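Q: Protein A?
A:
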Amino acid sequence: MFKIVRFLLFLCLLGFMAYFITSIPVGRYTLWRHFQAIWATPEARQMREDVGVGLKKAQGRIVQGNSKDEAQSSPVPPDRLTDRDRHDLKQLLDKHAGGSGEPK
């Protein structure tokens, strides 16, 4: 019952926001008209183009699976960790977790 009431309140709030944004003037225009005017500026157009180019580059790296940044971001590959490093890491995790290190 509570979920239904909460959902109905959410819908009412969403409807009020939509009404406010599209109907009530803030200054000379409604918020919707302000958003449209800002979105049509040359700076916003340039931003959309730049974001589009960046997304296409990221999509290409994901599809090809050869992101060079990932290989450089890891300071030490897992196969180069020594047993001493693993032991120190386990102790550090146990210290902060307050556990015995045994899986639960």
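Q: Protein B?
A:
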Amino acid sequence: MTDTQASEQTAAKKPTAVEKRKDKKPKSTGREGLITVIAIAKEYKLTPREARAILRAEKVKKPSGGWAYDPKDAALKRVREILKGEKK
């Protein structure tokens, strides 16, 4: 096999950038079904940054999966109450 034939074979095997993107599935954040602080902040016309700062000032512990809560979680109710009170 010559160098030209070898380089042609390796070039044929390499996927293009478009093919690489097609193969990848969208990343799952594991936050499906959760309510984020971003969504809650929008409800109260706050920026997500302001909402997180308020929660930190109130000593609310950040959940392990980020600032997102299960709709059934009691902590979500507390977060809403804190942010609602800050809206005034």
